[in-house]
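Class prep. Write one:
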Amino acid sequence: GRRVTVPRGDLGLAFNRLNQRLRRNRVWYELRRTARHEKKGYKRRRLESERWRKQFAHEVRKKVKLVDTIRRRGA
């Protein structure tokens, strides 16, 4: 299970921390994915798409970082 400390009885803060942790660990996403059976072909395509999106986002972040460093140099 998940545990979150409740600082000084602030239940709202503890609840928000728990939600953040669940979001970061993608618990709700996995729950929705496993609610129904997914055919092997669909799963393979979905995982391939997720990998591609993750890789693409990483490359975009790298390019933006590169452009920022070039701009900082005064080009």
Summary: The chain has three helices and no strands. Residues 40-73 form the longest helix (34 residues).
